Structures are given as C-alpha cells and as structure tokens.
Amino acid sequence: RRHTRLQGDWSSDVCSSDLRGGLPLIRFDELGSPIPDGVAAGAALSLVDADARPIAVGLIDAENECLRLFPLDEGEGWNPDYFRLRVRAALDLRRRLGLVGPEKAFRWINGEGDGLSGFLVDFYAGNVVVYAYSDAFLPQARWIAESAEIGRAHV
C-alpha cells in the first residue's frame, strides 16, 4: 500500500535523529511541512529526509491534532510484522519483570513506552483488551490484536 510522502530536512524543531530515536508524536502546529490536502485521519505518511530516505511512518491523529510517529529501522516495512515485533518485545520485557502469568493483570503495551504511540493493550487473566487513541487507527489496532492473540499463548 502506498503512503503519502512528507519530505523535509527535519533540522529545525524536529530532526531525523529525533524521529529515529523514538520521538512519539509531532503536534500539527510543529510540522515543518503541511499535511497534504485530501489526506484523511488515520492515513499513513512516510516521513523521509532531504535525500528521500525513510525515517518513520506517521499516522494522522486528527482527534488529538498530532502525527503519531513510528520509527523505521533499515529495511523495515509498515505491515503487521512491524507491530508483531513490538508486541513480542513488550511481552518479553514484562516477563523479565515478573508481571506475566495466565491469572495476572498487566499493561502489555503502554503506548510510547513500547514504541506504539496511540495504543494500549491490557491483559486481564487471559483476556486481551486493545485501545486505540483514535477511531482512525482501527486497522493498526487489528494488527496489534492479532499479534496479541498470537502472543497470548505464551503468557
């Protein structure tokens, strides 16, 4: 699926190292480039540097007037695997902290802290609840839910 490209030098208020380093969001009024006309809430924008290299994907969160950011590693794509990797990493971290167990309750995904700005996932004794900060994020929330369902077997 093609994404709209939002190209900039990202050198003033927001630079590419901030985006690659996990900056969770940019408020609309802080963007160096306007969001192109006709781009709807929940649309995925490819943020690229001045040399057109991908830095991150941004989801338009019109309800909260910001662009939610998802940094891309070299060669990484915007697909269910992107979310599956982060859901798995979050579960592994909670397991190392002793929070995971079939009869326990814990926050599996805590938005920005787990690299998934705009999403929360809670686990309650075998039940998984996925929360998206915007209705427009439901496609990605489904990817997270599918990943959590796969991971639930390892709790």
Structural summary, described in words:
- The structure is a single chain.
- This protein is α+β, with helices and mostly antiparallel strands.
- It contains three helices and eight strands.
- The chain has helices spanning 16-20, 80-96, 138-152; strands at 4-7, 25-27, 44-48, 54-61, 66-71, 105-110, 119-124, 127-132.
- It has a five-stranded mixed beta sheet with strand order 1-3-4-5-2. The protein has a three-stranded antiparallel beta sheet with strand order 6-7-8.
- The longest helix is centred in the middle third of the chain and has 17 residues, at 80-96.
- It is elongated.
- It starts with a strand and ends with a helix.
Shape from CA axes? Answer: elongated
Order of helices and strands: EHEEEEHEEEH
Distance between the termini: 33 Å
Instruction: Give the fraction of residues assigned to helices.
Output: 10-25%
Q: What integer is the average pLDDT?
A: 83
For the largest sheet, list the strands in their spatial order: 1-3-4-5-2
Low-confidence segments: 1-5, 7-13
> How much is the radius of gyration in Å?
16 Å
Q: Which class best fits the helix and strand makeup?
A: alpha+beta
SS field, number of helical segments: 3
Proportion of beta-strand residues: 25-35%
Number of strands: 8
What's the main sheet like? 5 strands, mixed
